[in-house]
């Protein structure tokens, strides 16, 4: 066996081990939050794949990202896995084993995240000289295997990693087309772009690269007439690919348009208001921080290498600035949106660090300092590599430690806290994936104190998460009213329980501090990770309303109708700013009102037929007087009748309930 063959076999073995390590971290992270689905976006893929199977249809009525490729691939996986694991169709098994399907969908993403490792190594190897290829590929594989942002997002059932895989595949195919001019590679790049658009619309940016590639090849070959022909054929093939994957993107284009207009709204909390330059800076900072700021040295060296060795193969790196410029135009910014750009920085950095060692070895004129320079290089790159590896492992551990939402769910089950008696926000145990959103509008400020608004007056508990309230407090200048409410709540209500994610892990900016921080995190045992969750007692004042002089007879509710009975109903008295009171049923949070025939019923709070009472003190009790009449017990039935002095049928007694349990 020749020395060259031995090096290749060793390099392949190391590449396989690196890929295996990256895969283990990604697959392990797929169990994050089990048995709760914690991610706010995963339901779009998982639930719609199940819905597609339930309808026995090829159509997925999703238009916002649009996730069509992943939904359909996952639907196929679900159908097979459900038969093997549960012996029933996926839409039946989903009712009782829903989290298993979320893990499968995450595993689907993890496979693409893993496949990205050797794909990136191949792509990088084609950009450097043969004598430097193996080292470049190994460094690239290591970077892609343990990049924190790639490891983290490879464990989510979301589109970003899958899209990034196809962007890298597109870059590799484009290399081959630019180099050879064979139309097979052109049509393949168009198909890959069509698949990418079915995953996320921004993949359409790759059409600009296709157009530039066609123009370049046609000018080089002096076949100018083919520019229009290839352009038309590319458009046709692109549309055909999209139509095969998701025909309803065409047949229901109005829904596509309406969804895009809605999703483009510039008012996502914590993700808007930076402008084009601000978004650009955000993505660049995130990209550099993921690799550690000292990685800029490698990126600079990589750029020098590319400029000195210009070729069609390196031209695909221009995808990154084009893509970055286009997504920065959007009003919003999210870390995951930039992943298709970050990987090109990773490629450039890996090429740069490989080039640095190559230049050191080739520098014959500085033989006397070659060894110390090589040692410095190895220590420097070793520290950066260790930092990447530890960060990836730290993020994986963070995913495997129990989340604060799981811990606080046990508190809910043990103490009777549920969706009926609570005001709860997103990213809390009662809405772990954030679907409930925020609830600041359930409160108002009076004399510096937070007070519950009428529609929510019967709620006993308020549950919030730092994942939501923290955003408003951080952006208090943009959301002053909301921030004021969140500041007032701790001073206005008793905090009865709190769960803090003491071990939540987030890599530090610089390698030297992050390595020590991560080693401490890996060594310690933490009860839970995640955002802090707060429980407050809203202390609603529950009462019973009894007929004065008739012990045990009071107002009760049965199927929305209000009657009189011996099983007394708990009510909450809500004091309005105009001095009137509203009575809300503690059981269903509905207010006392009246129907068209004049009988008493429960209605939505603040409805037009809601009874707003004045409380009139009588010798033996009180009279509840509204514009529609006084509350009167007539023939054993509560009704509204004109107020009459001395009418004992209109006298009631309100008694406080010691522990409302609402």
Descriptive labels:
single chain, 662 residues, alpha+beta, Trefoil (Acidic Fibroblast Growth Factor, subunit A), 3 domains, 4-stranded mixed β-sheet, 21 helices
Please, could you describe this protein's structure?
This protein is of the alpha+beta class. The protein folds into three domains: about 5-260 and about 275-400, no CATH class; about 405-535, no CATH class; about 540-655, Trefoil (Acidic Fibroblast Growth Factor, subunit A), CATH 2.80.10. It contains 21 helices and 18 strands. It has helices at about 5-30, 45-55, 70-85, 90-125, 135-145, 150-155, 160-180, 185-200, 205-220, 225-245, 250, 255-265, 275-290, 295-310, 320-325, 340-360, 365-400, 405-415, 465-475, 480-490, 510-525, and strands spanning about 420-425, 445, 450, 460-465, 495-500, 535, 540-545, 555-560, 560-565, 570-575, 580-585, 590-595, 600-605, 615, 620-625, 630-635, 635-640, 650-655. The strands form six sheets. The chain has a four-stranded mixed beta sheet. The chain has a four-stranded antiparallel beta sheet with strand order 11-10-7-18, with no helix packed on it. The protein has a four-stranded antiparallel beta sheet with strand order 14-15-16-17, with no helix packed on it. Strand 8 (about 555-560) and strand 9 form a beta hairpin. Helix 7 crosses helix 16 and helix 8 (about 185-200) crosses helix 10 (about 225-245). The longest helix has about 35 residues, at about 90-125. The model has no long low-confidence stretch (mean pLDDT about 90).
Spatially, the strands of the biggest sheet line up as 1-4-6-5
Distance between the termini: 79 Å
Approximately how much helix is present in the residues?
40-55%
Determine the mean pLDDT. 89
Give the oligomer, counting copies of the same chain as homo and different chains as hetero. Answer: single chain
Broad structural category: alpha+beta
Please summarize the sheet with the most strands. 4 strands, mixed
In DSSP terms (H or I, runs of 4 or more residues), the helix count works out at 21
For the secondary structure, the number of strands is: 18
Using the CA coordinates, give the radius of gyration.
32 Å
| Strand-residue proportion | 5-15%
Overall geometric form: elongated
């Amino acid at each position: 066996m020749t020395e060259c063959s031995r090096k290749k076999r060793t390099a392949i073995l190391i590449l396989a081990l690196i890929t295996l390590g990256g895969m283990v971290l990604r697959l392990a992270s797929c169990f994050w939050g089990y048995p709760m689905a914690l991610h706010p976006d995963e339901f779009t893929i998982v639930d719609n794949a199940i819905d597609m199977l339930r309808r026995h249809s090829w159509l997925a009525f999703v238009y916002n990202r649009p996730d069509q490729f992943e939904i359909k691939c996952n639907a196929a996986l679900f159908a097979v896995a459900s038969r093997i694991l549960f012996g029933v169709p996926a839409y039946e098994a989903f009712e009782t084993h829903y989290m298993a399907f979320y893990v499968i969908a995450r595993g689907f993403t993890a496979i693409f995240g893993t496949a990205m490792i050797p794909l990136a190594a191949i792509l990088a190897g084609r950009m450097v000289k043969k004598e430097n290829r193996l080292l470049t590929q190994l460094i690239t594989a290591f970077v892609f295997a343990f990049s924190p942002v790639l490891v983290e997002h490879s464990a989510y059932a979301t589109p970003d990693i899958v899209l990034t895989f196809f962007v890298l595949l597109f870059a590799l195919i484009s290399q081959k087309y630019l180099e050879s001019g064979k139309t097979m590679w052109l049509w393949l790049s168009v198909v890959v772009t069509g698949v990418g658009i079915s995953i996320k619309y921004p993949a359409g940016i790759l059409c600009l690269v296709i157009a530039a590639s066609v123009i370049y090849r046609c000018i080089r070959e002096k076949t100018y007439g083919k520019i229009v022909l290839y352009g038309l054929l590319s458009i046709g093939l692109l549309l055909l690919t999209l139509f095969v994957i998701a025909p309803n993107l065409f047949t229901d284009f109005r829904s596509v348009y309406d969804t895009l207009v809605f999703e483009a709204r510039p008012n996502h909390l914590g993700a808007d208001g930076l402008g084009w330059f601000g978004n650009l800076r955000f993505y660049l900072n995130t990209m550099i921080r993921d690799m550690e700021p000292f990685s800029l040295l490698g990126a600079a060296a990589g750029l020098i290498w590319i400029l000195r060795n210009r070729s069609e193969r390196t031209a695909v790196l221009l995808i990154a600035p084009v893509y970055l410029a286009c997504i920065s135009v959007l009003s919003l910014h999210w870390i995951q949106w930039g992943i298709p750009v970050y990987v090109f920085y990773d490629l450039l950095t890996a090429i740069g660090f490989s080039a640095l060692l190559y230049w050191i070895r080739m520098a014959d004129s500085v033989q006397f300092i070659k060894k110390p320079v090589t040692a410095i290089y190895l220590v420097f790159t070793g520290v950066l590599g260790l930092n990447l590896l530890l960060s990836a492992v730290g993020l994986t551990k963070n995913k495997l430690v129990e989340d604060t939402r799981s811990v606080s769910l046990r508190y809910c089950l043990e103490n009777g806290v549920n969706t009926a008696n609570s005001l709860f926000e997103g990213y809390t145990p009662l809405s772990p994936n954030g679907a409930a959103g925020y609830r600041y509008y359930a409160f108002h400020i009076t004399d510096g104190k937070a007070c519950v608004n009428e529609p929510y007056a019967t709620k006993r508990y308020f549950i919030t998460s730092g994942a939501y309230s923290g955003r408003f407090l951080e952006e208090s200048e943009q959301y002053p009213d909301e921030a004021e409410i969140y500041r007032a709540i701790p001073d206005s209500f008793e905090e009865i329980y709190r769960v803090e994610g003491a071990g939540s892990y987030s890599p530090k900016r610089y390698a030297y501090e992050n390595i020590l921080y991560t080693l401490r995190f890996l060594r310690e045992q933490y009860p839970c990770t995640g955002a802090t969750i707060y429980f407050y007692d809203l202390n609603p004042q529950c009462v019973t309303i009894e007929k004065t002089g008739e012990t045990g007879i009071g107002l009760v509710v049965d199927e929305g109708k209000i009657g009189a009975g011996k099983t007394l109903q708990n009510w909450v008295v809500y004091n309005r700013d105009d001095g009137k009171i509203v009575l809300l049923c503690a059981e269903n949070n509905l207010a006392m009102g009246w129907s068209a025939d004049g009988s008493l019923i429960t209605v939505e709070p603040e409805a037009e037929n809601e009874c707003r009472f004045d409380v009139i003190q009588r010798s033996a009790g009180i009279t509840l007087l509204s514009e529609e009449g006084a509350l009167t017990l007539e023939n054993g039935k509560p009704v509204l009748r004109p107020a009459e002095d001395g009418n004992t049928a209109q006298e009631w007694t309100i008694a406080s309930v010691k522990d409302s349990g609402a």
